[in-house]
Write a structure and sequence with these properties.
It contains four helices and ten strands; from the N terminus they run ββββαβαβαβββαβ. By secondary structure, the protein is an alpha+beta fold.
Length: 193
């Protein structure tokens, strides 16, 4: 069943993290210095992620030289979804051409801190690590026949790199719900506006 991302309030600071990467070393939020930071929650098995993963790999590679740092985080329960364990994620990195760190959130606490709801779920931060965009890669979805362009995220990143705000409304991302371990489901998310 498809789930939409939560529209976390703009200006929210990026929650801290220190997570192991597939490549081995731990990656901390404080280690990343770039004018823009994309934190994206991904999984290997989800058809919504597979639909955009190659385009996401190409996009992030293109923008790495322009000032965008990217980290992916996998928070799914790997006992019930073994395709999302390290070997599956490593195969995904190869298949999709990811060049950014892919982190493993085994406790699921980072996903909770970010209010991540689905895969893919995109959170774009400015140089002060304030949330400036939370939304979809583009409007393409499996079976809707729209091309995968990354246009919504590309526009947001271009604006951030120019020092501009990303005007709302932001189109929520849509994908497979985060696979929470039994008993670890987060409380329902509500934001006061």
């Amino acid at each position: 069943m498809a789930v939409s991302s939560h529209l976390v309030p703009l200006g929210t600071p990026a929650p801290d993290f220190a997570l192991p990467s597939l490549a081995g070393p731990e990656v901390k939020l404080t280690d990343i210095s770039a004018p823009a930071l994309l934190v994206v929650f991904l999984s290997n098995h989800c058809p919504y992620v597979r639909h955009v993963e190659s385009a996401l790999g190409a996009f992030t590679s293109e923008y790495a030289g322009k000032g965008l740092a990217t980290v992916a985080i996998s928070s799914n329960d790997v006992v019930n979804y073994p395709d999302d364990d390290v070997p599956g994620l490593a195969a995904q990195v190869e298949r999709a051409g990811f060049t950014f760190p892919y982190l493993v959130d085994a406790s699921q606490e980072v996903a909770k801190a970010y209010a991540a709801a689905c895969t893919p779920d995109f959170f774009l931060y400015d140089g002060q690590r304030r949330l400036v965009y939370r939304g979809a890669f583009d409007e393409s979805r499996p079976r809707n026949d729209l091309p995968v362009t990354g246009e919504l995220l590309r526009d947001a990143v271009d604006r951030v790199l120019r020092g501009e705000a990303v005007p709302e409304p932001h189109v929520p991302s849509m994908g497979c719900g985060i696979k929470w371990r039994e008993g670890n489901e987060p409380e329902p998310v509500t934001f006061l506006g």
